[in-house]
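Trying the structure run again after the queue cleared.
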Amino acid sequence: MKQFIEIANVTVSYRENIALKNISLNMEEGDFISVIGPNGAGKTTLLTVINGLGKILSGSVKVFGTSLITSNINKIRTKIGYVSQHLNIDPRFPISVREVVKIGRFGKIGLFNHISHKDEEIVDSAMELVGISKLAQRPIGHLSAGEQQKVEIARALAQQPEIMLLDEPTSNLDPKSQTDLIKLIDRIYKEKKLTTVFVTHILSHIPTSCNKVVLMKRGKIIWFGGIKTALNEELLSDLYDCPIEITNKRGRILAQPKWW
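Done. Tokens:
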């Protein structure tokens, strides 16, 4: 497997706050990596670094074997799909689901280029994969939070990325919508085999396709390795500064505070 993402001794700050502290991490093509840790651990900042948006004080980042520098960031980002955790959509904003998904194509072909018939087919395919074809003409602001997040995933897929970054995509959803979205992310990975980085602070939300885990705490990577090894009560208790208990529920391993 070739290295898709190479982060070496990277430090990132926001004014006086150090968000990432001398971190190093390599991700291989086809990996499904979950980044977990408490709030403020630096998980989202790690994604911004991969996506060429973080202001790096020191260290280096390579994506697809190419160093991220000002002259090539935009080209590299056309191959990276990004789904954020915040969807602040005004219900009065007059844009349809299909138009939102089309934005992913403009991210690939350029903002002022013409959408071709092939591009339209790619948009259709992305909506079908995510299961929102019937919503194509609905105003995006009229959808539920779960439906809106599916639209965001379809938009990222329409870009035909080689890397998918998902920043706590289940954070604002009800339990059923969370479960549905996690299953969808699993299904997309199994079909597309996109190199995926999935951020969450909820251990039970880690998709079953995940093969590696990054544990982050206070801007540092404190552990990186296979998911089976990561599901360790001592390791997770240290991560969250509270006693964690691991249980097996219907074949799915869950980790939660012992007092639950």
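The chain has a mean pLDDT of 89. Worth checking whether this holds up in the mutant runs.
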